[in-house]
Amino acid sequence: MGRNLWAEFLLFEVLHCLVFFPTRRRAYRAVILVAMIYLAAHIYLTTETTKPVELVCTMGQRISLHFGSVAYLMFTEGSFPDHWKRVRDEVHAKADTDGRNRLPSNFTLTKKLWWMVDLKHSVRMVGWVQEPRDCLPPPPPPSRRTFLWKTFFKFIAYVVLLDLFKLMFVQNPVFDTRAHDPTDGPETYLAALPLLRRAPYVLGFGLWIALSFKTVQSFWALVCVGLAGSSPTLWPDMWGRWRDAYTLRKLWGRTWHQTMRPMLAGLGKLVANKILGFPRGTNLSSYTQLYIAFFLSGLFHFAGEFMYERRIVYRSFIFFPLQAVAITLEDFVIFISKRLLLQRGSKLDPGNPNGSWPEVIARVVGYLWVTLWFCWTLPIYIDEASLAGYYTTERGTISQFLFGRWKLWADV
């Protein structure tokens, strides 16, 4: 890696926090942003090695996400910083008749610093007035003890399952470079399997991603609620219900992790409504936001891949825009189907858990469609990364112990 890479990245994190200090002075933020841009360019362009893989990719993605969060918070809604308010800053609203003491720019220094740190780590805006309540799962009850016990046992379960899921990658020709000849191309990995045989790997890969996010979130929830006194209500699950994933739109919009949802939605509205001037609620506005969201998703993932392996960066710019195209076609098919059914006096609501048999069948067909779509497109996303050694990993502690015991028993 580049010289002092981790120190530079830590400095970048500090600058990203300082840029949100609640002051109205634009010159202050301009200086911080210039320093962030210079430091980010230096980090990206001076990376010399690519180990450890996960940390390098995470670093690249975090840098790009931080720039996205700056754009979202400062340019999408009202004036920064006074437009962005925490719910707890609104509790005593009646005690402040003119509201001036509740503006972040008028906080005391200590309160400003806490507000700044809180905003930096509030990617999903949970606990803020601007929280997007239409997509986040409901918050857990405020009982700290109950939350800590449940989260602790979930964390243990996630760690064990994540360890066992590593067996899906180790020495598996679908993922692991070591199981291939050095001259093999990406088409010899997941794409080499017949379409229907890919389904277990596609579903397993999705569950592995979900477990990874859940493990990290559970760890930080235990730390922040148990040690820092954070409220359990600020830690809703970042995943929606998997039973809602019977269309691509619902999978990406409701089920898949909501880490970037507020930012992507805000930047999409900025482009569609303020820059291009499309009226809110129109198809032009809606689909512009859709394509902007998936383009930005590709860009953020590209940033991590660029840090790791320059040759695989194009995969994100194919995979994520393809999702927007498929959702557009899916919407068209659903629209035509509903029109035809209405003309015959029928109406389907597959989302109704107590629906009729036709609605259940429509939902099953939806699950099959989503699964087949990812069986076709997921190799685009992961095979180049597999070829570059991204998924070449070792067995975890638990799976290695079980594997060793199994070999010992088999040799007896």
From TrEMBL:
Any one GO biological process: lipid metabolic process
The protein's annotated pathway: Secondary metabolite biosynthesis
Protein keywords: Membrane, Transferase, Transmembrane, Transmembrane helix
Keyword Transmembrane part of the UniProt annotation: yes
Top-level taxon of origin: Eukaryota
Record GO cellular component, one term: membrane
Recorded topology in the membrane: Multi-pass membrane protein
Domain Wax synthase: 235-320
Keyword Membrane assigned: yes
Main location: membrane
Residues annotated as transmembrane: 30-47, 152-169, 189-211, 218-235, 290-308, 317-340, 360-382
Subcellular location: Membrane
PANTHER family in the cross-refs: LONG-CHAIN-ALCOHOL O-FATTY-ACYLTRANSFERASE 3-RELATED, OS04G0481900 PROTEIN
Entry protein name: Membrane bound O-acyl transferase family-domain-containing protein
Organism from which the protein derives: Thelephora terrestris
Lineage: Eukaryota, Fungi, Dikarya, Basidiomycota, Agaricomycotina
